[in-house]
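The data layer described in this paper is built around a simple, fixed record for each protein. Because each token names a local backbone shape, the row as a whole describes the fold. We quote a single record here, exactly as it is kept in our systems:

***
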Amino acid sequence: MQLRYAFRLYPDATQQAALARAFGCARVVFNDAVRAREDARKAGQPFPTAGQLSTRLITEAKRTAERCWLGEVSVVVLQQSLRDAESAYRNFFASLKGARKGPKISPPRFKSRKDARQSVRFTANARWSITGSGRLSLPKIGAVKVKWSRTLPAVPTSVPTSVTVVRDAAGRYFASFVIDTDPDAEKARMPETDRIIGIDLGLTHFAVLSDGTKIDSPRFLRRAEKKLKKTQKELSRKQKGSKNRAKARLKVARAHAKVADARREFHHQLSTKLISENQGIAVENLSVAGLARTRLAKSVHDAGWSSFISMLEYKAERYGRTLVKIGRFTPTSQTCHACGAVDGPEPLNIREWTCAACGTVHDRDINAAINVKTAAGLAVSACGAPVRPGAIPAQREEAGSHGFPTGNRAA
């Protein structure tokens, strides 16, 4: 399994200028590759191959007066930019043919120097290294200071295959390493347990577990709205194109980055806790993209359910846990977990209800979490491993989320 480890970089002024050149050259090569393909398409000619593009846009372009400055950066950066363009077209054509899962994607577009995120990638043949003093040595950039917030895996098979240097909208620099990990070693890090949990995600409480535990929603965006409003107002009053406007834009970006970082940290801590304590986890396959088109859109994006479930997915695979998503139309909040009677849809303001069949008083969220766990069909074998029986058909009587597609990721 491949994992990505990101660390904060602190380049000095000279290194920032060198990174800016690398970002710019990679962007120009990418745009030249897109333009060459578009010209070939309009002329009715076959697309140029990767080798032809490399020769024309890198090797020969360096000898011209218009592109001679491409030689100021590592050639690996330029080659990786061409590979990114090839990958973008490959994904686009796979999406057109239906071979790629998810929503249809558009063809590659030209990159802009004003894009919020700039990045370059160095592979092993770029001869980048980590110095003895803990700095990241990059070709034609220098030894950049790194804040090592944690250690990279030290096993022989976990050698970083590449490093990507990223500059985000807030002006921060990060080094992202791709690591090939040992699956058996990763699974051995988490002791086996016989616990199985169902999770009901919501807005009043971020998550309600089938054992009755309720986890409050931090509402990071709501809490930061006053500060965000102030910084955005300051930005709107600055003259376009001025240096003060650039400073105000950076201030807004940093305020938003702080909110996103806090939300991501909360998701990581909660998902790791749930994965470590439970062998099997069941969640509902929510329609986040559909819910984001309702009047609850801001609260839905603030919760970040898609990001949280994605963390549960990769951590479950990493540590040998089982994650099951039940159908979104399963009437979890309408079914009595005691007798199985379906009471029918209730307004969202009804948080408790009494089953007409058996008289059991239910907390709406806890009852839904228990039904999520039951619908997943998880069981634990004698050795402690989770076992799931055959697929359970989803019931179509669930109200409130019909017709909503999935797939949105909150920031």
